[in-house]
Design goal:
By secondary structure, this protein is of the alpha+beta class. The protein folds into two domains: about 80 residues, OB fold (Dihydrolipoamide Acetyltransferase, E2P); about 170 residues, de novo design (two linked rop proteins) (Up-down Bundle). It contains eight helices and eight strands. The strands form two sheets. Strands 1-2-3-5-4 form a five-stranded mixed beta barrel. The chain has a three-stranded antiparallel sheet with strand order 7-6-8. Helix 2 packs parallel to helix 4. The longest helix is centred in the C-terminal third of the chain and has 19 residues. The structure holds zinc ion. The site of zinc ion has 8 residues, from loops.
Length: about 270
Protein backbone atom coordinates (compact mmCIF):
# COMPACT_ATOMS: atom_id res chain seq x y z
CA UNK A 1 0.00 0.00 0.00
CA UNK A 2 1.69 3.19 -1.13
CA UNK A 3 -1.21 5.61 -0.86
CA UNK A 4 -0.45 6.47 2.73
CA UNK A 5 -4.19 5.90 3.42
CA UNK A 6 -4.32 2.14 3.76
CA UNK A 7 -7.75 2.26 5.35
CA UNK A 8 -9.49 3.74 2.30
CA UNK A 9 -10.97 1.53 -0.41
CA UNK A 10 -13.22 2.06 -3.41
CA UNK A 11 -15.98 -0.30 -4.42
CA UNK A 12 -19.06 -0.60 -6.54
CA UNK A 13 -22.19 -1.16 -4.47
CA UNK A 14 -25.97 -1.42 -4.55
CA UNK A 15 -27.86 0.21 -1.67
CA UNK A 16 -30.02 -2.58 -0.22
CA UNK A 17 -31.44 -0.86 2.86
CA UNK A 18 -30.92 2.21 4.96
CA UNK A 19 -31.99 3.71 8.22
CA UNK A 20 -31.59 7.05 9.91
CA UNK A 21 -28.71 7.46 12.29
CA UNK A 22 -28.37 10.34 14.75
CA UNK A 23 -29.44 13.84 13.72
CA UNK A 24 -28.45 13.88 10.07
CA UNK A 25 -26.58 10.67 9.23
CA UNK A 26 -27.68 7.55 7.48
CA UNK A 27 -26.71 3.92 7.97
CA UNK A 28 -26.55 1.87 4.76
CA UNK A 29 -26.55 -1.85 4.01
CA UNK A 30 -24.63 -2.29 0.77
CA UNK A 31 -24.03 -5.25 -1.51
CA UNK A 32 -20.51 -5.14 -2.95
CA UNK A 33 -18.71 -7.55 -5.30
CA UNK A 34 -15.63 -8.18 -3.17
CA UNK A 35 -16.92 -7.84 0.39
CA UNK A 36 -20.48 -9.10 0.15
CA UNK A 37 -22.81 -7.14 2.42
CA UNK A 38 -21.20 -4.26 4.30
CA UNK A 39 -22.65 -1.61 6.58
CA UNK A 40 -21.44 1.95 6.25
CA UNK A 41 -22.45 5.35 7.57
CA UNK A 42 -23.02 8.39 5.40
CA UNK A 43 -22.37 11.42 7.55
CA UNK A 44 -24.70 14.36 7.00
CA UNK A 45 -26.56 12.52 4.24
CA UNK A 46 -29.93 13.80 5.47
CA UNK A 47 -28.87 17.45 5.49
CA UNK A 48 -30.28 19.50 2.63
CA UNK A 49 -27.73 19.81 -0.17
CA UNK A 50 -25.57 16.95 1.14
CA UNK A 51 -23.04 15.78 -1.46
CA UNK A 52 -23.58 12.16 -0.43
CA UNK A 53 -27.34 12.23 0.01
CA UNK A 54 -28.27 12.43 -3.66
CA UNK A 55 -26.35 9.27 -4.56
CA UNK A 56 -27.27 6.78 -1.91
CA UNK A 57 -30.98 6.20 -2.36
CA UNK A 58 -32.48 2.75 -2.13
CA UNK A 59 -31.41 0.36 -4.95
CA UNK A 60 -28.99 2.87 -6.47
CA UNK A 61 -25.92 1.38 -8.16
CA UNK A 62 -23.00 3.51 -7.01
CA UNK A 63 -19.24 3.79 -6.80
CA UNK A 64 -18.04 4.59 -3.29
CA UNK A 65 -14.86 5.61 -1.52
CA UNK A 66 -15.04 4.10 1.94
CA UNK A 67 -12.98 4.59 5.05
CA UNK A 68 -12.61 1.27 6.76
CA UNK A 69 -13.77 1.03 10.36
CA UNK A 70 -13.70 -1.73 12.93
CA UNK A 71 -17.47 -1.95 13.36
CA UNK A 72 -18.85 0.40 10.74
CA UNK A 73 -17.27 1.78 7.60
CA UNK A 74 -17.71 5.44 6.64
CA UNK A 75 -18.53 6.66 3.14
CA UNK A 76 -16.31 9.55 2.07
CA UNK A 77 -17.41 9.88 -1.54
CA UNK A 78 -20.28 8.57 -3.69
CA UNK A 79 -20.90 8.66 -7.43
CA UNK A 80 -23.97 7.27 -9.16
CA UNK A 81 -23.40 4.65 -11.86
CA UNK A 82 -27.09 3.93 -12.46
CA UNK A 83 -29.94 5.25 -10.29
CA UNK A 84 -32.52 2.86 -11.88
CA UNK A 85 -34.95 5.73 -11.77
CA UNK A 86 -37.74 3.76 -13.48
CA UNK A 87 -37.54 1.20 -10.69
CA UNK A 88 -37.54 3.71 -7.86
CA UNK A 89 -40.42 5.85 -9.15
CA UNK A 90 -42.90 3.04 -9.86
CA UNK A 91 -44.37 1.22 -6.87
CA UNK A 92 -44.85 -2.05 -8.77
CA UNK A 93 -41.23 -2.12 -9.96
CA UNK A 94 -39.92 -0.86 -6.62
CA UNK A 95 -41.59 -3.68 -4.69
CA UNK A 96 -40.01 -6.24 -7.00
CA UNK A 97 -36.65 -4.49 -6.80
CA UNK A 98 -36.78 -4.63 -2.99
CA UNK A 99 -37.72 -8.29 -3.19
CA UNK A 100 -34.73 -9.29 -5.34
CA UNK A 101 -32.42 -7.02 -3.31
CA UNK A 102 -33.54 -8.75 -0.14
CA UNK A 103 -32.98 -12.20 -1.65
CA UNK A 104 -29.47 -11.13 -2.70
CA UNK A 105 -28.77 -9.86 0.81
CA UNK A 106 -30.04 -13.04 2.46
CA UNK A 107 -27.66 -15.28 0.50
CA UNK A 108 -24.68 -12.97 1.03
CA UNK A 109 -22.35 -12.96 4.01
CA UNK A 110 -20.67 -9.93 5.55
CA UNK A 111 -17.16 -9.44 4.19
CA UNK A 112 -17.25 -12.51 1.90
CA UNK A 113 -16.85 -11.89 -1.86
CA UNK A 114 -20.07 -12.21 -3.87
CA UNK A 115 -19.19 -11.06 -7.41
CA UNK A 116 -21.71 -13.32 -9.18
CA UNK A 117 -24.58 -12.33 -6.89
CA UNK A 118 -23.62 -8.66 -7.27
CA UNK A 119 -23.53 -8.83 -11.07
CA UNK A 120 -26.85 -10.73 -11.14
CA UNK A 121 -28.50 -8.04 -9.00
CA UNK A 122 -27.17 -5.13 -11.08
CA UNK A 123 -28.19 -6.77 -14.38
CA UNK A 124 -31.61 -7.65 -12.99
CA UNK A 125 -32.28 -4.10 -11.71
CA UNK A 126 -31.40 -2.87 -15.21
CA UNK A 127 -33.92 -5.27 -16.77
CA UNK A 128 -36.50 -4.43 -14.11
CA UNK A 129 -36.32 -0.77 -15.16
CA UNK A 130 -37.61 -1.57 -18.66
CA UNK A 131 -39.37 -4.93 -18.71
CA UNK A 132 -43.13 -5.28 -19.06
CA UNK A 133 -42.88 -8.63 -17.33
CA UNK A 134 -41.51 -7.88 -13.87
CA UNK A 135 -42.99 -11.01 -12.27
CA UNK A 136 -41.16 -13.28 -14.69
CA UNK A 137 -37.98 -11.37 -13.82
CA UNK A 138 -38.48 -12.02 -10.09
CA UNK A 139 -38.98 -15.75 -10.74
CA UNK A 140 -36.03 -15.95 -13.11
CA UNK A 141 -33.87 -14.07 -10.59
CA UNK A 142 -34.78 -16.43 -7.72
CA UNK A 143 -33.92 -19.49 -9.81
CA UNK A 144 -30.62 -17.99 -11.05
CA UNK A 145 -29.68 -16.85 -7.54
CA UNK A 146 -30.21 -20.37 -6.20
CA UNK A 147 -28.15 -21.78 -9.08
CA UNK A 148 -25.11 -19.52 -8.62
CA UNK A 149 -25.08 -20.06 -4.86
CA UNK A 150 -25.14 -23.85 -5.27
CA UNK A 151 -28.78 -24.48 -4.40
CA UNK A 152 -30.29 -25.09 -7.82
CA UNK A 153 -33.46 -27.16 -7.41
CA UNK A 154 -33.40 -30.54 -9.18
CA UNK A 155 -35.76 -30.21 -12.14
CA UNK A 156 -34.39 -32.90 -14.47
CA UNK A 157 -34.67 -36.21 -12.60
CA UNK A 158 -36.28 -37.35 -9.33
CA UNK A 159 -34.27 -35.68 -6.55
CA UNK A 160 -34.55 -38.81 -4.34
CA UNK A 161 -33.90 -41.84 -6.56
CA UNK A 162 -32.37 -40.10 -9.59
CA UNK A 163 -34.73 -41.80 -12.03
CA UNK A 164 -35.75 -39.90 -15.11
CA UNK A 165 -39.17 -38.26 -14.77
CA UNK A 166 -41.89 -39.25 -17.22
CA UNK A 167 -43.30 -36.24 -19.11
CA UNK A 168 -46.22 -35.88 -16.72
CA UNK A 169 -47.44 -33.93 -13.69
CA UNK A 170 -45.22 -34.36 -10.61
CA UNK A 171 -44.65 -32.74 -7.20
CA UNK A 172 -41.88 -30.57 -5.77
CA UNK A 173 -40.36 -30.81 -2.29
CA UNK A 174 -38.39 -27.83 -0.99
CA UNK A 175 -37.04 -29.94 1.84
CA UNK A 176 -35.62 -32.53 -0.55
CA UNK A 177 -34.68 -29.87 -3.10
CA UNK A 178 -36.45 -30.89 -6.27
CA UNK A 179 -39.09 -32.82 -8.19
CA UNK A 180 -40.15 -36.28 -7.06
CA UNK A 181 -41.18 -39.35 -9.05
CA UNK A 182 -44.49 -41.12 -8.20
CA UNK A 183 -42.83 -43.76 -6.00
CA UNK A 184 -40.72 -41.28 -3.99
CA UNK A 185 -43.52 -38.78 -3.42
CA UNK A 186 -45.18 -41.02 -0.84
CA UNK A 187 -41.97 -41.32 1.22
CA UNK A 188 -41.45 -38.69 3.89
CA UNK A 189 -43.80 -36.18 5.46
CA UNK A 190 -42.54 -32.98 3.85
CA UNK A 191 -44.85 -30.45 2.15
CA UNK A 192 -45.33 -31.28 -1.53
CA UNK A 193 -46.22 -28.67 -4.13
CA UNK A 194 -48.00 -29.60 -7.36
CA UNK A 195 -45.88 -29.21 -10.50
CA UNK A 196 -47.84 -29.76 -13.71
CA UNK A 197 -46.08 -30.76 -16.91
CA UNK A 198 -46.51 -27.15 -18.13
CA UNK A 199 -44.99 -25.79 -14.91
CA UNK A 200 -42.01 -28.14 -15.16
CA UNK A 201 -41.36 -27.08 -18.77
CA UNK A 202 -41.40 -23.38 -17.83
CA UNK A 203 -39.14 -23.95 -14.80
CA UNK A 204 -36.60 -25.81 -16.95
CA UNK A 205 -36.72 -23.03 -19.55
CA UNK A 206 -36.21 -20.36 -16.86
CA UNK A 207 -33.32 -22.34 -15.37
CA UNK A 208 -31.33 -22.69 -18.58
CA UNK A 209 -31.98 -19.28 -20.19
CA UNK A 210 -30.93 -15.70 -19.69
CA UNK A 211 -33.71 -13.28 -18.86
CA UNK A 212 -34.09 -11.74 -22.35
CA UNK A 213 -34.84 -15.23 -23.72
CA UNK A 214 -37.71 -15.80 -21.26
CA UNK A 215 -38.95 -12.22 -20.85
CA UNK A 216 -41.88 -12.56 -23.24
CA UNK A 217 -42.88 -16.10 -22.22
CA UNK A 218 -46.62 -16.37 -21.92
CA UNK A 219 -47.12 -18.29 -18.67
CA UNK A 220 -50.64 -19.46 -17.78
CA UNK A 221 -52.23 -18.38 -14.50
CA UNK A 222 -52.10 -21.85 -12.90
CA UNK A 223 -48.47 -22.36 -13.95
CA UNK A 224 -47.62 -18.92 -12.52
CA UNK A 225 -49.17 -19.86 -9.18
CA UNK A 226 -47.36 -23.21 -9.06
CA UNK A 227 -44.00 -21.69 -10.03
CA UNK A 228 -44.43 -18.94 -7.43
CA UNK A 229 -45.13 -21.48 -4.67
CA UNK A 230 -42.29 -23.79 -5.73
CA UNK A 231 -39.65 -21.06 -5.98
CA UNK A 232 -40.76 -19.30 -2.82
CA UNK A 233 -40.75 -22.49 -0.75
CA UNK A 234 -37.37 -23.46 -2.20
CA UNK A 235 -35.69 -20.08 -1.57
CA UNK A 236 -37.25 -19.79 1.90
CA UNK A 237 -36.06 -23.27 2.78
CA UNK A 238 -32.55 -22.44 1.57
CA UNK A 239 -32.43 -19.08 3.26
CA UNK A 240 -33.92 -20.49 6.44
CA UNK A 241 -36.71 -18.03 7.07
CA UNK A 242 -39.46 -16.18 5.30
CA UNK A 243 -38.47 -13.30 3.07
CA UNK A 244 -40.07 -10.20 4.50
CA UNK A 245 -40.78 -8.25 1.36
CA UNK A 246 -42.61 -11.23 -0.24
CA UNK A 247 -45.67 -10.19 1.75
CA UNK A 248 -45.41 -6.65 0.38
CA UNK A 249 -44.98 -8.07 -3.11
CA UNK A 250 -48.18 -10.13 -2.76
CA UNK A 251 -50.06 -7.04 -1.75
CA UNK A 252 -48.83 -4.93 -4.66
CA UNK A 253 -49.26 -7.71 -7.20
CA UNK A 254 -52.99 -7.85 -6.48
CA UNK A 255 -53.36 -4.23 -7.52
CA UNK A 256 -54.23 -3.30 -11.07
CA UNK A 257 -51.26 -2.37 -13.27
CA UNK A 258 -49.33 0.14 -11.21
CA UNK A 259 -48.30 3.35 -12.88
CA UNK A 260 -45.67 5.84 -11.81
CA UNK A 261 -46.14 7.24 -8.34
CA UNK A 262 -46.87 10.98 -8.47
CA UNK A 263 -43.67 12.73 -7.48
CA UNK A 264 -41.83 9.43 -7.27
CA UNK A 265 -40.92 7.52 -4.18
CA UNK A 266 -38.37 9.18 -2.01
CA UNK A 267 -36.20 6.62 -0.35
CA UNK A 268 -35.89 8.69 2.77
ZN1 LIG B 1 -37.81 -41.14 -7.20
Amino acid sequence: MTSGRPNLFTTEAVVLRHSDLGEADRLLWLLTPQRGVIRATARGARKPGSKLGGHIDLLCYVKLSIREGRELHGISQADTIDAFRNVRTDLGRLSRGLNIGELAERVSVEDAPAPAVFRLLVNSLGWLATTQNADTLVRWFALRLMTITGFKPELGACVDCGNELEPDDHVFSAERGGLLCPSCRSQGSDALHPASLGTIKVLRHLARSDFPAVESLNIGAEERRQIERILRSHTNFVIGRGVLSSAFLDEVRDWPEVGPVPGGIRAD
